[in-house]
Write a structure and sequence with these properties.
- The chain is an alpha/beta fold and 403 residues long.
- It is built from 15 helices and six strands.
- The protein has helices spanning 2-17, 19-43, 62-66, 82-90, 119-140, 145-152, 169-199, 202-206, 212-243, 266-293, 300-320, 328-333, 340-349, 355-383, 393-401; strands spanning 48-53, 72-76, 96-103, 106-112, 251-254, 257-260.
- The strands form two sheets. The protein has a four-stranded mixed β-sheet, sandwiched between helices.
- It is found in: Membrane.
Length: 403
């Protein structure tokens, strides 16, 4: 145990004090502050400007049309300016043009934009212009206003969500991406470190003094600690943004996703830490075995490709679970070890996974980690001193079977 702690402390000191780790975390803080700062100032900035042209007999009030438009400001323009306005849209100087026309005795709209339509603007403006048309038709036809009002009154709809998950979408999105990047990045770091040490023949000096298995576990646990430190660094960036007033205390928008901080409960944070640690250990042990069987860093990419594919599958299913957490694919994937850490956490935040399911998935993950650890430790011990060039799959099987 004393030799293991020596290895662990050595790699931990080397990892936490390296220039790449220090500068990497400084960049992380800058990125976090930059994201929240940009989101804050861009949301408080000027509205998109859209020209509104109305040569028809339907009278409109620009102030009334602008009511309810949070991110867009309409301004009146003449029909003769249309060519110049379109040029401004193409050049990015104007965000769009709304032309009001008459078709078959009814108002119609033509929306000109450069690349992406503002669907919120279209929905709100269509409703308002429709009301303008109705009012004119009522006036022209001498219809009793009270009768007309009843005819055009929309059917009231009362929404009763048994489980409202709209406030959790942003939380799931952020945490799923964070878990994916940390597991992938830390796992790749383990494999690269082991392969580099093997290629430089450092292993030949270390193995007579320290058991290879100690070296493997030392690297895995050190990368786990650095991953947790990175999470803390990101949390500090979040808290700094909050203290600067860049984040609303109750709800804020992050890249179009509304995040309700009241959904960020203790069980959510604890679940993230638990599933991150378990997911990391599951993949890190595999990465350690992969790093031990190759002799050159150039060969690492092809050998580790199956592990990367597994993580990517887990990530994509986790993202899809944001919108349909009760689908068969998501539910089944929450019990499969390679996808369970990301997918189960997503279902927990969405309220689809209870304590029983959490317990079952954790037990499955622990059992899977034990099995993979048993095989990977043999592969590592037998492969770390193997310099026979490219290792075939049958060679890896033999390493796993050899005591």
């Amino acid at each position: 145990m004393g030799k293991f702690m020596t290895v662990f402390k050595f790699h931990l000191k080397d990892g936490l004090t390296s220039k790449s780790f220090i500068f990497g975390n400084l960049i992380t803080i800058v990125i976090v502050l930059g994201i929240f700062g940009f989101s804050h100032f861009s949301s408080n900035g000027s509205k998109d400007e859209v020209a509104f042209i109305n040569p028809t007999s339907y009278k409109t009030n620009i102030d009334q049309l602008n009511k309810g438009l949070n991110s867009v400001k309409l301004f009146l323009q003449e029909e003769g300016d249309l060519a110049q306005l379109k040029k401004q849209v193409r050049d990015g100087e104007l965000d769009g043009i709304i032309e009001m026309k008459e078709k078959n005795g009814l108002p119609a709209l033509t929306y000109t934009y450069k690349s992406f339509a503002d669907q919120e603007l279209v929905a709100i403006l269509t409703q308002k212009i429709q009301q303008v048309g109705i009012n004119k038709t009522i006036a022209d036809s001498n219809v009793n206003p009270e009768v007309a009002a009843k005819l055009v009154t929309p059917v009231p709809v009362e929404n009763k969500a048994l489980k409202d998950t709209t406030g959790t979408v942003g939380i799931v999105y952020i945490f799923v991406i964070l878990m994916y990047l940390l597991i992938l990045g830390q796992g790749q770091m383990i494999a690269n470190t082991i392969t580099a040490e093997k290629a430089s023949r450092v292993m030949e000096i270390m193995i007579p003094k320290v058991k290879p298995i100690y070296m493997m576990y030392g690297k895995i646990l050190v990368q786990l600690v650095t991953g947790l430190v990175q999470i803390v660094i990101m949390l500090l960036g979040f808290l700094a943004s909050y203290s600067l007033g860049w984040i609303d205390g109750k709800q804020f928008s992050f890249f179009g996703f509304d995040i309700d901080l009241s959904n960020l409960t203790g069980i959510v944070v604890a679940s993230f830490i638990i599933y991150f640690v378990l997911g990391y250990l599951l993949y890190a042990i595999g990465y350690a075995a992969v790093g031990a069987v190759v002799s050159r860093t150039e060969d690492l990419g092809s050998v580790s490709f199956p592990i990367i594919m597994c993580i990517m599958v887990a990530f994509f299913i986790g993202i899809s679970s944001i919108f349909n957490p009760a689908s068969t694919l998501v539910v089944v994937s929450s019990y499969i070890p390679i996808t369970s850490p990301i997918v189960t956490f997503s279902r927990i935040v969405s309220g689809e996974a209870g304590y029983a399911e959490m317990g079952i998935t954790i037990v499955i993950l622990l059992a899977s980690i034990a099995i993979i650890n048993h095989l990977a430790s043999r592969i590592y011990v037998n492969g770390v001193m193997n310099y026979s060039g490219k290792v075939k799959f049958k060679d890896v099987i033999q390493m796993a079977q050899k005591h």
